[in-house]
Amino acid sequence: MSQIVHTEGESNTSSARKAWMKESIGPKSSPLLKRDANAFLHQSLSSPCVSTIAKAEGIWVEDLDGRRYMDFHGNSVHHIGYGHPRLITAIKAQLDDLSFAPRRFTNDPAVELAEKLAEIAPDDLGKMLFTTGGSDANEVALKIARAATGRFKTISFWDAFHGAGFGAASVGGEATFRSHIAGPLLPGAEHVAPFACYRCPYNHAGPDTCGLACAKMVEFVLEREGDVAAVIAEPMRAVPYVPPSGFWKAVREACNRHGALLIMDEIPTGLGKTGKMFAFEHDEIIPDIVTLGKALGGGILPIAACIARTKLDVCGDFAIGHYTHEKNPVTARAALTTIQIIEDEGLVDRAAELGEHAMDRLMGELQNIPIVGDIRGRGLMFGVEIVDDRADKTPGNARAERIYYACLEAGLSYKISQGCVLTLSPPLTITRKDLDCAIDIVVNAIKDEC
After folding, report:
1. Digit-coded pLDDT (tens) for 201-215
2. Which residues contact 285 (CB under 8 A, 6 or more apart)?
3. Distance (Å, rounded) from C-alpha 356 to C-alpha 363?
4. What is the fold of 15-80+347-449?
5. Is pTM, for the whole model, over 0.90?
6. What is the layout of strands, in order, in the sheet containing 289-292?
7. Rounded distance, CA 215 to CA 251, Å?
8. For residue range 293-346, what is the model confidence (pLDDT) as tens digits?
9. What is the mean pLDDT of residues 370-394?
10. b/e per residue, 249-266, with b = 16+ CB within 10 A?
């Protein structure tokens, strides 16, 4: 693995990047970066990379030259930190016991994981299918929705991310994953404007009015189209954006009225990241289908899950996943152990407690800084939006990039979302001391940019 940062909206040839590469890349990292650039297809947000990685442990990554970084990005896989000893022990034991299972032969770890997910999911979310990645889990969810409703249309949000496959990219709304594709994407993929209170023209009217205004956009399309199979969305956008008060209750009721399913993509937000096991629990609703991924494999192995209401088990006569590693005992053991670690170490409550502390500190130290347009988040997923002009909310992309590289130089890695949002998502295992150290780095870099 050679990538330690993920900076959305950053140009690979930006002046800030060039300066970083020239001044901060050591002699051991430089050759591997060149080999990486020569070997891999280049794509936005990935290759070429900005540094190397030689070690990953807890909240830390270390490059080949010994430079260490607190990782507040981690592709959202490192809820329990990197290389959790209990997880490594469980994976090694499973490799010795049973390393693979063909789909048509069941095994104890796979069944136990399915039962555990049904236990932690609310209500009758009790039927599931495992995939190797979140994009595939969302594809399965879309197939279930079509089969259950006899419809094919969807509603989702512009700027949302649901994966890189054709179906997932179709319901997603990020230009990076759509604009390069020649020809049509999935038919019937309708999009509406996302909830985003900071830039919403209705936010002056109060959160309840704002929430209802956003939800009415969804119901308008549900009513106009009349044959929508599902609304698919992130319960809290990982940008991050927290939904307005009452938003998801209104959408849930609209789906019920118009016969559409509600799919919650919990791939970055689930398993405790926001201070609840599932982010939708903050909004007191229950979806029809939930997808999990990323952190489910404990930051070591790839596994994702599609969890559906029991009554949606309607696809027995045809294949909706059919993945080679659908019931892999090793990835299933990794996921099961990850959930057990989250529960046994009280990491969901820890995320809520530390997230509140982080937001209090950021609000206390940055709310009057002129280049800070907004501070928002839930649990250990929070962000600071950088602007050039607070009055007209002009995005401060260049400022955000300079702040990012200043933080990286100081030993903190994270990602920039939407060009100007410093998006901070540390492991749930982080200590308060390390969290405060990271916040100090961000605050100082922002103040130095003023």
Report:
1. 555 555 556 667 788
2. 248, 249, 251, 252, 262
3. 11
4. Aspartate Aminotransferase, domain 1 (3.90.1150)
5. yes
6. 125-131, 304-309, 289-292, 261-265, 228-233, 153-157, 189-192
7. 6
8. 999 999 999 999 999 999 999 999 999 988 999 999 999 999 999 999 999 999
9. 93
10. ebbbebbeebebbbbbbb
Please state, in angstroms and rounded to a whole number, the distance separating the CA atoms of residues 103 and 115.
Answer: 17
CB atoms within 10 A of CB 415: 24
How much is the average pLDDT of 234-260? 93
In sequence order, the 6+-apart residues with CB closer than 8 A to the CB of 206 are: none
- Domain 85-344 listed as CATH 3.30.565.10: no
pLDDT digits (tens, 9 = 90+) for 104-125: 999 999 999 999 999 999 999 9
What is the domain partition of the chain in residue ranges? 15-80+347-449, 85-344
